[in-house]
Amino acid sequence: MTPSKIDWKRLALTALADYNISASQLVFLGHSENVTFRVDTFSSENSATSKEFDGQRLFLLRIHYPITRCCDRIWQQQAVIESELMWLTALHEDTDLVVPYPVQNQSGTFVTSVAIAQTSETLNCTLLNWVDGSPLDSQPTLTQAWRVGELMARLHQHTSFWKLPLDFTRPKYDWEQLYASLIELRSLVDVGTISVADFTVLETVVQRIGDVMTALEKTRSNWGLIHADLNENNYIFHVCEARAIDFSRCGFGYYLYDIASTLKHLFPENRKSFLSGYHNVRQLSDDYQNFLETLFIAATIDNFAFLASQPNEHDCLSQDIPYVTEKLCSKYLKGETFLFES
């Protein structure tokens, strides 16, 4: 069944019936990796809620159904979703970070399975506590970028010491993932979205990155659970505090990959400020910049592959990919730095 034919609100209400809350209003937020609703309720039965709205209780309901069905289905598997929620629970219990930690259903579990009407298909749903804050409508200030860097460092600090549960499973952002992204992009050559010349550059770059990634040892200090998507849509500010939301793409990867994924969305001066904030909490190795630039391109290619599965993004890709191959990849292959240039 196509997403447009599913009654999402009805399905959301069915999922909510398995929780000890009574919704006064459902507000549709969007459909990307998941279908999301804000749940407004005045129920006092569940204490794991926001307390800043004069008694109003707010939650986030996620229906785990991506807008592009050709995406890797591993992200919708129950064990993978449960593992994300294990990390959020640990962050809530072990730190003072404000994160969207999960709410148990009436069966005492975090994942609720709901059947789609008139089909044999079921979807996984989760309910999380609402995180108060506001997104930015422009580039962060230098101070805000510093705060986001500090936030990421605190996430990395936690996962570098956290003992993973035995049944914990999340995807990896590694060399195999990067190669899969390259294969995904190859399909756009046939339809003319990517030129043969640009794809050849990407192939060469991926091989170079693969050599670096396979040689880079994975240790608890440089590899672990990462948010992997901490961009301007997934961090918010409450007063002056940066808060991370939407951990649905979290997985295992190099911490520098996580940093690079965020730097892609920042101007050069903000990149420097972000790293200063990061270093205020957690130090990187002296030679981190070379590895960071390598993983910056890797994260860019992975993002291109994610967008390639969405036809409405192809026009942007046809413009962005030539820019990246000419301005960034060419410098990278020559051993020239680019990360902090305007």
Q: How does this model look, in words?
A:
- With 342 residues, the chain is α+β, with helices and mostly antiparallel strands.
- The protein has 9 helices and 10 strands.
- The strands form 3 sheets. The protein has a 5-stranded antiparallel beta sheet with strand order 1-2-3-5-4, with helices on one face. Strands 6-10-7 form a 3-stranded mixed beta sheet.
- Strand 4 and strand 5 (122-129) form a beta hairpin.
- Helix 8 runs antiparallel to helix 9 (314-334).
- The protein is globular and about 60 Å long.
- The termini are far apart.
Q: If strands are numbered along the chain, what order do they take across the biggest sheet? A: 1-2-3-5-4
Instruction: Tell me roughly what share of residues is in helical segments.
Output: 40-55%
User: What form results from the Cα inertia axes?
Assistant: globular
Alpha plus pi helix count:
9
Low-confidence stretches: 44-54
Radius of gyration: 21 Å
Along the chain, the helix and strand elements come as HEEEHEEHEHHEEEEHHHH
The structure class reads alpha+beta
Strand segment count: 10
Write the layout of secondary structure elements.
Elements (H helix, E strand, L loop, with lengths): L7 H9 L8 E7 L3 E7 L15 E7 L14 H17 L17 E4 L6 E8 L12 H20 L10 E2 L1 H16 L5 H20 L7 E4 L8 E4 L2 E4 L6 E4 H9 L4 H12 L8 H21 L5 H21 L8
Parallel strand pairs: 6-10
Antiparallel strand pairs: 1-2, 2-3, 3-5, 4-5, 7-10, 8-9
Helix pairs in contact: 3-7, 4-5, 4-8, 5-8, 5-9, 6-8, 8-9
Name the descriptors:
alpha+beta, three-stranded mixed sheet, 15% strand
